Amino acid sequence: MRDIPVGARIAVVGAVVGAGACALPVLRQGVPWAAVALLAGLYALCEWPPRCPVLAGRVNVPIASGSFFPVLLAAAFLLPPAAAALVAVPGALIASVEEEPRRVRRVWRAAQLAIAASAAAGAHVLLGGRETLGGRGAAAAPDFPYALLPAGAAALVFCLALTALDGLILATAERRPPRTAWRGLLLRSLAPHCVHGLAGLMMAVLWRSRFGPPAALFVLLPMYISCWVFAQYHRERAAHRATIRALVQAVDIKDRYTRGHSERVGRASEMIARELGMEEGRLEVIRFAGILHDVGKLGVPTRVLRKDGPLTPEERAVIELHPEYGHEMVRGIGFLGEARAAILHHHERLDGSGYPYGLAGGQIPEAARVVAVADAFDAMTSTRSYRQARPVAAAVTELERCAGAQFDPRMVGGLVRALSRYGWHVEVTADEPAGFGARGNVPPSRPVGTPAEPAADLLPTPPATGRISPLADVGEPGPRPHPAPGLPDPRRSNAQGA
């Protein structure tokens, strides 16, 4: 709990207190405890398999978050608000959680679901939904289509409560700006929760029918089908990550001097994109672009990458072919999307002096402009075998100095704001001596524009060591390379690299 930001602690404690207030009325009102126990046990049973010592690893269907919300919504339709709040707690507390801190996440999830279920039940009661569900007698049939209105309103309230609390924890725990913490959450959740509401209504109607609670269990079948669909989706994403991991490991093995660089560039690229307010769907693609930006080095001879002496103009020309090699390698990987264009164009400069195609200004894809800044920043702030890392403040000053000519000022500004919000920590790289402590860089505390020592890696002169530095690789115009065999002529290629 100590590592959790203060704002997030306050949010968790506030949610727990709110959930307790929602459930407190059960002490002074008649509650159908049998129904509460049945529904709470059913929801817990749905969430339990991934944590069961016997079933874990044998259950081939991963339980996706929200897959069994119809059980909670059925409880909201059948029970008083306070009782509906209790139904969510046991299942949330035993649910599988992958990320730390697990206990705090389970407590937060239990409080969040209790508040949402109680609010949904309150909305359903307020609109007279209980009377529309019918009863056990033959004459007490459900009142359709009028039952849909209170059920839909309850599902909407349930969705609003969850998204509001999700945005709150994103803003406090991950310190996202408020304008981006809630962006897109409601739109992405609305349709699934409407479907969950319809399934919950079916469960409630069957529960109240003459067939009783056992009939309501038939609604679980489409839920498990939904889980199977999610399983296919997760397997596909796992295959994507495995593909990217294999490519990155191959680059790290070949160019040991920049091991770990790709992951950090991906992280910095995502920070910039998030700060600029890009949609969630693009953030992963931008991160992939940062991770794979140097994959084309697999096509560069190892003797050139690891050369100790000065690089000849011909060798520099070979190095500068790596964006085109990288683009060719990932051209057929459809899920990368605009990341392919970023891999091809991340060494272009705003003034047109970059490579491989000499694009300028708006001709350079937005993703490539993001990766260019992230690449330069990480190269300056991480230790290499031939030089020590620069402080974050010095790196930011150099990026600001080159903004407008080499880098997009919007991307530089986004990185500066993200660093002020989150800070930056560089992990130990493989080329550092064993036992070397991890060094951390803190957010820049200087006013923007304060002079700092120029980063020689960004200047248009080869490094004195003769080894091409990451930033020289980023920004130097160098001689224009000729197209490699099998690659398109840059002068006739599509500028977007598609």
**What Rg, in angstroms, do the CA atoms define?**
28 Å
Which geometry do the CA atoms define? elongated
Count of structural domains: 2
Major β-sheet annotation? 2 strands, antiparallel
For the residues shown, what is the average pLDDT?
78
Assembly state (oligomeric): single chain
Strand order of the largest sheet: 1-2
How much helical structure, as a percent, in the residues? 55-70%
CATH superfamily heading of the largest domain: Hypothetical protein af1432
Q: Helical element count?
A: 20
Under CATH at level 1, the class of the largest domain stands as: Mainly Alpha
Briefly note the structural class of the backbone. Answer: mainly alpha
CATH topology of the largest domain: Hypothetical protein af1432
* H/E element sequence: HHHHHHHHHHHHHHHHHHHEEH
As residue ranges, the low-confidence spans are 58-64, 428-498
CATH architecture of the largest domain: Orthogonal Bundle
- Strand percentage lies at under 5%
According to DSSP, the number of beta strands is: 2
